[in-house]
């Protein structure tokens, strides 16, 4: 006897209801527990049936209320028939063959297949089949439970479609950014402004990195802030040792990608040219969190540079009188940036509104 059979034999259904005992009159049977078993089987919301493998074509000998509700058939239309009566033209033949093989080998199988109700409507059935043995290891019945997973299948299909759409969108956006970059480079060369064109292209590339990693979430209307931050800043720390990230699983409105991406790109580019990342010992810490009152939440991002060259306060104070691109972008998004120049680097705090329903 197989190990599975031995295990099943120890928990055999000796308390099977009276309607099944006629098939196995020698089985030990406790009438009281049999009644409880039958009531439990009948009242459970899981659709359940039992088939008798000792009769020709292994007919159904019991189908509970949930099975009848799921299939649309009455008990008299179910009992005595093989369960294949719920199959139809759309039922996968390969799945049916797997079921047949499992029954022949007395194995447990779980398979999803398309079934048909009495009214002709279809549903996806997560079918669980397995043998039931008596205390001696003899096969008594095949147990079948059915679960309507049509909604689950639809959700899977929608998720799969969303992933495919995201991949296609990613491909198209890469092409779009590449075309824009090519136009900018061409214009820069023909007009003798290569340096300006290169600076614009760096911003375009930063936008592309921010969007590419958040496209999977686009259909839901929000992004994971940390994912966008890491993607934008990755090129400025190829070894992953100089920019440190500290944040939670904060999510934000998808429209925040552009502002976040370009703002952090500008800060990183400045750090590479003049700040902490211009020195081998320099470090940058980026922290992000949710802040603000319940009715007016905000994204708060702290940019902390350490180990950079001494700060030329006079130059920075003069430069700060003319707000740069970061200030203008944040202002248009109803956000702001506060800067504090410390001895070895810039400390900046960026704030952006956060939609309450995706906080």
TrEMBL record:
<keyword id="KW-0600">Photoreceptor protein</keyword>
<feature type="domain" description="PAS">
    <location>
        <begin position="57"/>
        <end position="106"/>
    </location>
</feature>
<dbReference type="InterPro" id="IPR035965">
    <property type="entry name" value="PAS-like_dom_sf"/>
</dbReference>
<feature type="region of interest" description="Disordered">
    <location>
        <begin position="1"/>
        <end position="24"/>
    </location>
</feature>
<keyword id="KW-0067">ATP-binding</keyword>
<dbReference type="Pfam" id="PF07536">
    <property type="entry name" value="HWE_HK"/>
</dbReference>
<keyword id="KW-0716">Sensory transduction</keyword>
<keyword id="KW-0285">Flavoprotein</keyword>
<dbReference type="Pfam" id="PF13426">
    <property type="entry name" value="PAS_9"/>
</dbReference>
<dbReference type="InterPro" id="IPR011102">
    <property type="entry name" value="Sig_transdc_His_kinase_HWE"/>
</dbReference>
<keyword id="KW-0547">Nucleotide-binding</keyword>
<keyword id="KW-0675">Receptor</keyword>
<dbReference type="InterPro" id="IPR036890">
    <property type="entry name" value="HATPase_C_sf"/>
</dbReference>
<keyword id="KW-0418">Kinase</keyword>
<dbReference type="InterPro" id="IPR000700">
    <property type="entry name" value="PAS-assoc_C"/>
</dbReference>
<dbReference type="InterPro" id="IPR001610">
    <property type="entry name" value="PAC"/>
</dbReference>
<protein>
    <recommendedName>
        <fullName>histidine kinase</fullName>
        <ecNumber>2.7.13.3</ecNumber>
    </recommendedName>
</protein>
<keyword id="KW-0597">Phosphoprotein</keyword>
<keyword id="KW-0288">FMN</keyword>
<keyword id="KW-0808">Transferase</keyword>
<feature type="domain" description="PAC">
    <location>
        <begin position="104"/>
        <end position="161"/>
    </location>
</feature>
<dbReference type="InterPro" id="IPR000014">
    <property type="entry name" value="PAS"/>
</dbReference>
<keyword id="KW-0157">Chromophore</keyword>
């Amino acid at each position: 006897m197989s190990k599975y059979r031995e295990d099943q034999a120890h928990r055999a259904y000796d308390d099977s209801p009276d309607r099944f005992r006629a098939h196995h009159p020698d089985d030990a049977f406790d009438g009281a527990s049999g009644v409880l078993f039958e009531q439990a089987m009948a009242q459970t919301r899981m659709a359940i049936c039992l088939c008798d493998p000792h009769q020709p074509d292994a007919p159904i000998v019991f189908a509970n209320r949930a099975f009848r509700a799921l299939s649309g058939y009455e008990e008299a239309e179910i009992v005595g028939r093989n369960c294949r009566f719920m199959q139809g033209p759309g039922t996968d033949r390969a799945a049916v063959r797997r079921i047949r093989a499992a029954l022949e080998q007395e194995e447990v199988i779980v398979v999803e297949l398309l079934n048909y109700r009495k009214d002709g409507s279809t549903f996806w059935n997560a079918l669980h089949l397995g043998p039931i043995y008596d205390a001696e290891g003899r096969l008594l019945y095949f147990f079948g439970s059915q679960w309507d997973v049509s909604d689950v299948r639809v959700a899977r299909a929608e998720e799969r479609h969303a992933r495919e759409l995201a991949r296609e969108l990613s491909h198209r956006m890469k092409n779009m950014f590449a075309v824009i970059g090519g136009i900018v480079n061409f214009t820069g060369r023909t007009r003798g402004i290569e340096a300006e064109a290169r600076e614009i292209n760096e911003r375009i590339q930063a936008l592309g990195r921010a969007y590419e990693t958040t496209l999977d979430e686009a259909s839901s209307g929000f992004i994971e802030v940390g994912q966008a931050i890491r993607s934008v800043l990755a090129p400025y720390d190829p070894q992953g040792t100089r920019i440190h990230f500290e944040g939670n699983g904060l999510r934000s409105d998808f429209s925040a990608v552009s502002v976040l991406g370009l703002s952090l790109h500008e800060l990183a580019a400045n750090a590479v040219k003049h700040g902490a990342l211009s020195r081998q010992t320099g470090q940058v810490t980026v922290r992000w969190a949710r802040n603000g009152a319940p009715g007016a939440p905000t994204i708060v991002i702290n940019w902390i540079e350490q180990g950079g060259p001494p700060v030329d306060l006079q130059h920075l104070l003069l430069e700060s009188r003319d707000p740069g691109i970061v200030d203008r972008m944040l202002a248009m998004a109803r956000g702001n940036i506060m800067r504090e120049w410390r001895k070895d680097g810039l400390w900046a705090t960026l704030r952006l509104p956060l939609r309450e329903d995706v906080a």
